[in-house]
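Re: that backbone. Tokens:
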């Protein structure tokens, strides 16, 4: 007797339905598995996003504290956001930095790509592009967008990078922030 397992990659797409178009696109796909089972698969089909690790001239990392309704708690995260259709990734990263923190890249500063990753490959098709921006300076107040962020209780927090790394698992619990901080720490070590 052969031991055979039905594989997701061999599933037949029966139906695809967009459940919600905006602000995040939710999709349901009905699949027929090779063994005949019918399953529903749900995921968000988000556009690409950017996550920025902003480092000040004195080595501080700029973070955003905000209330996340789905978690019913405040989180400490890096500035991040969706890339608009046709928008250059570098420009999107700098736009999100200014919008969420009021910080900007210094004239002699550099924007270093740290890589692109799926944030939650089991639940979304969106790619997160991670950047290190150094040095950054306070150029004004956070601008926040008028779609969703206007309702967020957001504040800017600056702390030494080592302290931010130590907060992983404490006040920093998001995988995108965790990964970007660790990649930035490694990148900064190679730039010295």
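Recovered sequence:
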């Amino acid at each position: 007797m052969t031991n055979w397992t039905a594989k997701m990659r061999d599933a037949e797409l029966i139906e695809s339905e967009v459940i919600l178009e905006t602000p995040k696109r939710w999709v349901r796909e009905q699949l027929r598995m090779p063994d005949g089972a019918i399953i529903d698969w749900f995921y968000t089909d988000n556009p690409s996003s950017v996550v920025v690790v902003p480092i000040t001239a004195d080595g501080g990392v700029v973070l955003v504290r905000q209330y996340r309704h789905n978690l019913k708690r405040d989180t400490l995260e890096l500035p991040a956001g969706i890339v608009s259709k046709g928008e250059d990734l570098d420009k999107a990263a700098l736009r999100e930095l200014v919008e969420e923190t009021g910080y900007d890249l210094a004239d002699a500063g550099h924007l270093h790509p740290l890589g692109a990753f799926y944030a939650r490959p089991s639940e979304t098709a969106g790619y997160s592009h991670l950047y290190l921006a150094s040095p950054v300076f306070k150029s004004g107040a956070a601008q926040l967008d008028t779609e969703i962020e206007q309702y967020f209780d957001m504040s800017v927090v600056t702390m030494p990078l080592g302290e931010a790394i130590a907060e992983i698992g404490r006040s920093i619990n998001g995988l995108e922030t965790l990964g970007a901080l660790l990649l930035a720490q490694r990148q900064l070590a190679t730039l010295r």
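The mean pLDDT is 89. The chain has two domains: 8-44, 49-191.
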